[in-house]
Each structure stands twice: as structure tokens, then as C-alpha cells.
Amino acid sequence: MRHLLPYKYVEEIAKAGSIRKAAEVLSITPSALNRRLLAIEEELGVAIFERLAVGVRLNTAGEILLEHIRNQMSDLERVKSQIADLSGQRRGNVAIACSPELTGGFLPIQVQRYQQEFPGVTFRINRRFRMDVEQALIEHTSDVAFIFEPAKLADFQTVYNLRQPLMCVMNATHPLAKKQSLRLYECAEFPLLLPEKSWGIRHLLEQSALRLGINLRSTVQSDAREFLRDYDRQNDQLSFEIPINLNRENEPEGLVARPINPLDVPEGFIFVGHLRGRTLPVAAARFLEQVTTEMAQHFEQ
Amino acid sequence: MRHLLPYKYVEEIAKAGSIRKAAEVLSITPSALNRRLLAIEEELGVAIFERLAVGVRLNTAGEILLEHIRNQMSDLERVKSQIADLSGQRRGNVAIACSPELTGGFLPIQVQRYQQEFPGVTFRINRRFRMDVEQALIEHTSDVAFIFEPAKLADFQTVYNLRQPLMCVMNATHPLAKKQSLRLYECAEFPLLLPEKSWGIRHLLEQSALRLGINLRSTVQSDAREFLRDYDRQNDQLSFEIPINLNRENEPEGLVARPINPLDVPEGFIFVGHLRGRTLPVAAARFLEQVTTEMAQHFEQ
DNA sequence: ATACCCGTTGCAAAAAAAGCAACACTCGTT
DNA sequence: AACGAGTGTTGCTTTTTTTGCAACGGGTAT
What is the residue-wise DSSP string for A31-100? Predict the structure, then answer.
């Protein structure tokens, strides 16, 4: 939309921290950009940026305005989406923020299924850690979020949540594979493959280990889920997963998963939702609907 | 704000129902206005107005857009208000929609008191009937509302409400003045001064009369409160009022008010609030605060 | 002290918008 | 059936606005 170009400019200047850099990104001259900024500030009656020697920085007034700008822009997206939906053809973009635990398996299948029905809808998936998801929603970087063990839920509108007890993954030949349920101290006797500290799985484990006075020895630490899964196939080390990522047909052979006693490690939860008080674009709302009904169908009970 | 002039244009065309008429109001040529409309429609990908022989009319897409436009404009007002408030000086406009019962006495005094403290704040008071108030809020014609016996509260966010039993006003020499409390059938034996049907007071009376099988004879009907008040001073007719408009020092002499038995006519309520889900400009929010605390202080208990 | 990057401004060129007049069309009236 | 008054729309010219270019003044870091 041409008429709210000034808004885009303000946003870009704020991001770049300098008029000249922003001008380069927007491919116009710094002078033109500067003049538009000055015009906005004159119309508003106050300065939006404070001028530093090295560039500019938003002041309080600017931050209030920027919040309005972001609301306004994403609300316009919603309007365009609703209007497009009137003529039968569903278009738009769905921006998803999701925990690294949820990037594989279930979610991509859901996206694919939705796109099969509505090819006009595009998707953008952003991996975010549990404490960063909410910020992504506030900044309108993402429309919807799938979070495993969220750190905050202040501005979050939960649409659905799913219980996910922690599972321990091992070779079928592993000594612990004989048991149906594991205690945490049993696992701690073996070398562990752990994700990094920002993951929800790791968070649950660390918390419990601290409470029980158990020391978890991690031999290989990675923030790539695929790596961990492929690695432990040729070792007797242990890794951890949540049910939504297990029991799939395409699971590698020779691996088994055993639940951990919930007395040792409390069950985790996947939260599905969006920014509180926001009306989602049609595509995002419908996608959320599809995913939650599928979740309820497959994992409930 | 210059950059959302196109929005203003759309709004005006919708209101005028014709491009040419809107162009005249906006004091530009029809061709220029038409081109801007076409540009907007092209950017949106769909038509916003359907073209009739006698002018244009919003289609569904246009109504969605117009709602967005109104939200957006009043949210920008809120932003400007908040920004102005940062620098200590409170500015802005407070648009009030209120029932005709409430246009006198209490409300003007409150406005005057607020303006005394913050001279930069302007006010606009619009008299609206009980069934029209909500629409004024939805259209963002008004920020806050004071309604006696509202007809709908679907999109209304109540901030405060105040019980207002109906009072019968008469000359001090009137035969009914001897009683402390009146029955409706007693009043019905005298000629009545009634406001028109859209008033909350009339609504309460009609409802009760219907239920009790009483016939109310109105000799003089007016939609001007001042007229009724000045008129009955030289007659023995009866009129009706609510407590918030009584017991003031400047009340004309020789008049008394007697409550009507609540078994005959149920108590009315004044509702104070704004559009649900909307963040008010600073001035409007503060004014609402002042009024509700004053109400609580003077009329509670 | 020098080089560098910053926001800002005067001036000319370029682009966008507005005004004017005319066209095509639909309605209600003559 | 013809007319007139209303509508939205479009080609062309004029006006206004915006942009780009170059230069200035002022901070920072080397």
C-alpha cells in the first residue's frame, strides 16, 4: 500500500538505527528519506527519533508510534485477507513462530496439507526459543505460535494446549529398553545427548535434575534436532523427545522411546495461539483451526 | 495527517453516496477524487464501491475496509494523545454521546471542571437516543457515552453504572405533593408532560403502564428538557425526572419531586462507558475517570 | 589532525497529483 | 420519444509535490 509508505520508512529507520542506512535499504536518497521523517515529526508536533552522532534512535513518542504502525500494518493485512476471502479465493501469508522442538514432523505435514487445499496461501516458519516467541508476536513478526513450554504468556492468547510427557529415546538393544517407565536417576547413569539450554526439553530436565540433586552429563550438545536423532542410532547414549515427534511411520529403525516417570520430570505442554486481542487474517485463523482439530483428533486421550 | 488522506476520501464518498458530492465537500475536483478511488481499488485488487446510476454505494469489501479505516483513524488519535501527554501538556478532543436526559446539570458541570484543569482539551457533546448511542461508538463518532436505559450493550464496555429511580416533579401546592411516594395510577389521573418516545424516561413509563393496564395521557410532549421544566411551573401537571438532574441549587422554586413506587416503575440505570476493545485517548480516559469518581462520591448510597 | 559518517538543506529535475473539459451512460420528466 | 440532469470516467495540460544531487556543519574514531 502506497499511502502508508511513511510508516514503512519509520519502521526501517528504527530498525537500521540510521537514516542513511535505511535509505539504502529502501533504495532512495538519504535526503528524501530525511525530509519525509521531518514532515512526519512536524505533523505530529514532536520528534520521533533522538539524533545521536552515530545515527538516530527512537524516543518514547517514537515507540508509541511504532507500536501503532505495526498494529496498523498487520490489521491492514487482515483486512486484505478478509476481502480476498470474499471472492472465494483464499490468499495471504501465515507467519508461524515455533519452538525448535516442533519444527519437524507434525507441523510441516500440517502446512503441506493446508497448502494443498489453498495453494494461494504462503507460509513463513520461524524457529524461536521459548522466551522469544512472545516478542515475535508483539512485533507482529509472526501471526501464530506453537510453543513447547513457553516462558511467558502475558500477551498470549491460547487457542489450544497439548500435554506432552517427556520420552527417553534409545537403541532397542539398550539395557533400559526393557523397562516400561524410567526414573531420571536411571537415565543419568548413561551419557546424554541434550539440546542447548534454551530448549524447552532441556529446561524441563535441568529443573528436575536440580530439584532431585541429579547431575546430567551431556556428551554431545546440539541445537539441531536432526543431528541428535541421526547420531544416537549408532550409540547407546540417550536422548529425549516429546510424543508429537514420535510414533511416525518414517521413524528410523531400531529406536525405542520410553516415558519418564512424571514424578521425576513434570509433563510439558505445547501451547498454540496468537497475540492477545488481535484479529488474525483469514488464512492464519483457518490454519490454526485445522491444526487444533487435528491435534485434538490424533493426540487427545 | 496527510498520509491517510485517501482514507478520509473513502469515508467521505461512503457518506455522501456520490463521488461528485464528496468531491465538493472535500473541495477538490471529481476527477481527482475518482482517480484516487480507482488507485485504492487497484491496490486492493477489488472494487470498494458498486457503481449505481445515481452514485456509488459501499460493497461488502468496502464495509470491511471502512471499519478498518475508522479503527485506524481513532487509534491514531489515541497515539497522538498519548504522545502529547508525554510532554506534560494534555491535548485532544473528547467526543461524548449522551442520552437527552443527561445533557443538563451534572454533565456540563463535569466538562467545565475538566476544562478548567486542562484548557487544551476540547469537547464535543452529541445528543443520542438510547438505541442510537452504540452505533455512534461503532462509527467512532463518539469516544465515550452516557446512556440512560440503553437499548443495546453488545459492543459496549461499561465502566460505571448508576441506579436512577424515576421521580415525579410537580408544584409544591399539588395535591400529590403531600405523599412521600407515589403509585403510577395516582399520577395517571393528572395530565402529564412527557418527553418523546425515544427517551429512556418515556420508555420506562410506557413499559410499566402497559404492564399495569394504565393509560397515560400526555398533554404536552416535547423533546426539549428545558421546555418541560419551565412549563410546569405555572400548572398542576406532572412531569418526570431522574435524581441526577434534581436537588441542584439552581433548581426553580416551588417545585418538588416525589419518587414513584419501584414496584410500579422499575428503577432506571445510567451506563457510562465506551466501545468494547478500544483504547481511549488520554483525555477521554481521564475524563471518564473523573466523572465516575464524582458519580461514586455524590450519588453512591 | 585527519578521515569518516552522521543529519540536514538549497536548488534543479522528475514525478505525481490536480484541474479542466469532454464523453458515455442511466434515470426521471416532458 | 426526446430531453435534461445526474452519474462515473478519461485525455490533456498545468500545478504541486517529491526526489536526487551536491554541499555544509558537526560529531567520532583512528
Answer: HHHHHHHHHHHHHHTS-SEEE-SS-EEE-HHHHHHHHHHHHHHHHHHHHHHHHHHHTS---EEEEEEE-G
Confidence of residue B234 (pLDDT cuts 50, 70, 90): low
Closest C-alpha to A229, from A204, A209, A254: A254
Neighbours of B169 (CB within 10 A): 22
Q: In chain A, count H helices and then E strands.
A: 10, 12
* Cross-chain residue pair A46–B75, CB shorter than 8 Å: no
Strands B268-275, B144-148: pairing is: antiparallel
Predicted pLDDT at B250: 47
Give the pLDDT confidence score for residue A8 in this predicted structure.
Answer: 94
Using CA atoms, how far residue B139 sits from A277, B18, B52, in Å, is 20, 20, 24
pLDDT number for residue B19: 93
Strand C bases, protein C-beta under 7 A? 5-10, 17-22, 25-27
Is the CB of A37 less than 7 A from some atom of nucleic acid strand C? yes
Torsion from C-alpha of A57, A59, A61, A64, nearest 10 degrees: 70
* Beta strands A92-98; A121-127: pairing state: parallel
**Rounded mean pLDDT, B33-61:** 91
Instruction: Give me B235's grid cell.
Output: 400548572
Per-residue DSSP letter, B53:
S
Q: What is the pLDDT of residues B207-218, one digit of tens each?
A: 888 888 888 877
- Assign residue B277 a region: left if phi > 0, alpha if psi is -120 to 50, beta otherwise? left
Instruction: Output the distance from B19 CA to C1 C1' rounded to whole Å.
Output: 66
CA distance A23 to A31: 9
Q: What pTM does this model have?
A: 0.77
Q: Where are the strands (E) in A113-260, listed by range?
A: 121-127, 144-148, 156-164, 167-171, 192-195, 218-222, 238-241, 255-259
**Residues in chain A with pLDDT values less than 70:** 219-235, 247-253, 300-301
